[in-house]
């Protein structure tokens, strides 16, 4: 630690010689006065304003009826695969194979409500108006699937049709191998 050109040592020597002579100067301290009111206004008022702003921005409320875990899984599937109800309708009702892949259609079929969930969703649809309180995304998608006539049968037929060509080629190859062995 050097102050300038070795001045720290000269200060130490001066302090030691002054201490020997008995005339020690007390170090000068600076006193500062704090204005606590100004600090309070500057820091804490802004924090309160930010808290008030957060209170004003509430999350939108959605009407839900299915298990939150199931709802989250359906939403993750919809977001991850980019599936919409229009794509499902196009694939199942208009029979367009290029709209959804067979694997994606199989996942949609897996999300279709079963057993008790079907009854819960039917009651939910009858007792809740989406104009008053919007439905959750998962409920909207599942209810739309339920509105499709014979959804499970149609989905299974479309999946069979989509897998038929690959399975036929595989079986043809197996049969020709078997024929050549005999």
Describe the secondary-structure layout.
Elements: H1 7-21, H2 36-56, H3 68-81, H4 85-92, H5 102-111, H6 116-127, H7 137-147, H8 151-181
Helix pairs in contact: 5-8, 6-7
Quick rundown:
The chain is mainly α and 182 residues long.
Largest sheet: none
Oligomer: single chain
Average per-residue pLDDT, rounded, comes to 82
Total helices: the number is 8
Q: What gross morphology would you assign? A: elongated
How much helix is in the residues?
Answer: 55-70%
Number of strands: 0
Measure the end-to-end span: 97 Å
Strand content: under 5%
* Order of helix and strand elements from N to C terminus: HHHHHHHH
Explain what the structure shows.
It is a single chain. The chain has 182 residues and is an all-alpha fold. It has eight helices and no strands. Helix 5 (102-111) packs across helix 8 and helix 6 (116-127) packs across helix 7 (137-147).
Comma- or semicolon-separated keywords:
single chain; 182 residues; mainly alpha; 8 helices
């Amino acid at each position: 630690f050097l102050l300038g050109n070795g001045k720290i040592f000269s200060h130490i020597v001066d302090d030691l010689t002054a201490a020997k002579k008995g005339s020690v100067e007390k170090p000068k301290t600076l006193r500062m006065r704090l204005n606590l009111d100004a600090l309070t206004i500057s820091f804490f008022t802004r924090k309160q304003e930010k808290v008030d702003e957060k209170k004003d921005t509430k999350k939108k409320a959605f009407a839900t009826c299915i298990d939150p875990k199931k709802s989250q899984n359906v939403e993750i599937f919809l977001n991850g695969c980019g599936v919409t109800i229009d794509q499902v309708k196009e694939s199942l009702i208009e029979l367009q194979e290029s709209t959804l892949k067979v694997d994606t259609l199989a996942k949609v079929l897996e999300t279709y409500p079963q057993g008790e969930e079907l009854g819960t969703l039917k009651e939910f649809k009858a007792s809740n108006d989406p104009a008053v309180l919007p439905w959750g995304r998962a409920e909207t998608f599942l209810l739309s699937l339920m509105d499709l006539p014979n959804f499970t049968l149609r989905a299974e037929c479309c999946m069979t049709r989509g897998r038929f060509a690959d399975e036929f080629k595989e079986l043809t190859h197996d049969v020709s191998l078997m024929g050549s062995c005999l």
